[in-house]
């Protein structure tokens, strides 16, 4: 019998999960920009914001950790960490600078005008780009702890990550690497679990079971977020308590589980959701560039005198997802890879481009 010439089909579940998470990130930034514009106020503002921030970053943190152990075992922990650190710091520097320059250029047209002095305060992360500093810290911690060495190492690392995350749940410090520390438990849960093991488990889940999980976990996520009983991992730490942190951790976990369950269901529809999976595969592109398009669309709508809330939510969100994908397509056509990854000269300079013999 001749071998099947067709390549193996990539499981779309995690790509779809990343797509849902990045869309929620765009929606979250769009939603928060509506308050200064006077289009939405409390209690609706905070309740919706709490639901969104309860889980979208937790999904990204979890998925980001899933294949790190495999990569570090293949390439060596410190080389893998160094290569990712170079890329993350490049993207942080490039795109935070571009976003600041955009805000300086449009002046008072944006909700939060900035001073040119902010360009020099590179150690203070700007808006969403703090996530890159957090990722660098996670890579270094993983290389140092290597939780895949043994079950004891995995358990100890996971336990310390959980205790540390709960201790700083909802708290942030305005320094690179000092924000989002509560997400550490989700990242190391991914590292310990691994993507191969997770996808293997998910293949055996029945559709009916996935629907039940989605409904139950989704209800817990939304209720704990909308009622403000739970503190999101990266927000509202100024009003946190033992109970709100406990319920916030439960709500955030429920959000991750429900998004994974929904992603599993959507992935099993076959090629119908391939467009959503492609968005997930380009989630980094959308993450770094979406604010240019969401802010521009909101300014354009306001200039035209449009103040319908749903238009100000849907319009910037759609443009915020599509716009970065167009930039990516142009960059690829022009072979300008440095726009979304560290340039070759920088990788060479930092020793992050050498070819390694896979380690057994």
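^ structure tokens above, recovered residues below v
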């Amino acid at each position: 019998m001749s071998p099947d010439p067709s390549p193996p089909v990539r499981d779309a579940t995690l790509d779809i999960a990343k797509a849902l998470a990045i869309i929620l990130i765009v929606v979250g930034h769009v939603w928060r920009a509506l308050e200064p514009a006077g289009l939405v106020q409390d209690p609706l503002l905070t309740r919706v914001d709490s639901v969104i921030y309860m889980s979208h970053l937790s999904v990204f943190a979890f998925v980001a950790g899933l294949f790190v152990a495999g990569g570090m075992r293949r390439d060596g922990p410190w080389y893998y960490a160094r290569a990712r650190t170079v890329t993350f710091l490049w993207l942080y520097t490039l795109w935070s600078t571009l976003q600041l320059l955009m805000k300086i250029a449009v002046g008072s047209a944006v909700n939060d005008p900035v001073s040119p002095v902010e360009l020099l305060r590179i150690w203070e992360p700007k808006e969403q780009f703090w996530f890159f500093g957090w990722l660098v810290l996670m890579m270094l911690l993983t290389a140092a702890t290597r939780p895949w060495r043994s079950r004891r190492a995995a358990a100890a690392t996971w336990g310390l990550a959980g205790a540390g995350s709960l201790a700083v749940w909802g708290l942030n410090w305005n320094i690179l690497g000092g924000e989002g520390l509560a997400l550490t438990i989700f990242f190391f849960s991914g590292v310990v679990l691994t993507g191969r093991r997770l996808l293997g488990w998910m293949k055996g889940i029945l559709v009916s079971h996935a629907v039940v999980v989605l409904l139950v976990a989704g209800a817990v996520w939304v209720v704990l977020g909308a009622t403000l009983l739970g503190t999101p991992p990266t927000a509202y730490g100024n009003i946190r308590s033992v109970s709100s942190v406990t319920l916030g951790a439960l709500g955030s976990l429920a959000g991750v589980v429900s998004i994974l369950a929904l992603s599993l269901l959507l992935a099993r529809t076959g090629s119908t959701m391939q467009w959503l999976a492609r968005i997930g595969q380009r989630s980094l592109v959308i993450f770094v560039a979406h604010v240019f398009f969401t802010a521009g669309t909101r300014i354009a709508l306001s200039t035209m005198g449009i103040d319908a809330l749903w238009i100000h939510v849907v319009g910037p969100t759609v443009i915020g997802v599509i716009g970065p994908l167009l930039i990516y397509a142009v960059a690829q056509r022009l072979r300008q890879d440095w726009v979304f990854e560290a340039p070759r000269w920088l990788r060479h300079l930092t020793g992050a481009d050498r070819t390694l013999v896979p380690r057994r």
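Residues 65 and 190 are 4 Å apart (CA to CA).
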